[in-house]
Design brief:
The chain is of the alpha+beta class and about 90 residues long. About 45% of the residues lie in helices and about 15% in strands. The two termini are about 15 Å apart.
Length: about 90
């Protein structure tokens, strides 16, 4: 799966890592629903760090269709809320 982090670029991520990312996505959604700004910021950072750690960066000159687009690290709660699907940022 090709994942884009807005403002950073793309990484290729094996589907086997989706369970770990979905757990963080659920935590992010819970923080957003409760209005926990600190929890939101911490969990968004953890989610993006997990994608960077688990994924393989694509070359900067490569532009592949992204199957998943994640917000930039400095995205606001409102910006992330606008990107949400029914099941969070990450499908599943």
């Amino acid at each position: 799966m090709i994942v884009r982090i807005m403002g950073e670029g793309q990484v290729e991520l094996a589907d086997g890592h989706l369970a770990e990312l979905n757990k963080l996505d659920d935590e992010l959604l819970a923080a957003m629903e409760s209005g926990d700004q600190d929890g939101f910021r911490r969990t968004l950072g953890a989610l993006l760090e997990a994608v960077r750690r688990l994924g393989t960066p694509l070359p900067d000159d490569s532009l592949e269709p992204s199957e998943l687009i994640l917000p930039a690290p400095d995205a606001t709660l409102e910006e992330v809320r606008a990107m949400l699907r029914d099941d969070g940022l990450i499908p599943g």
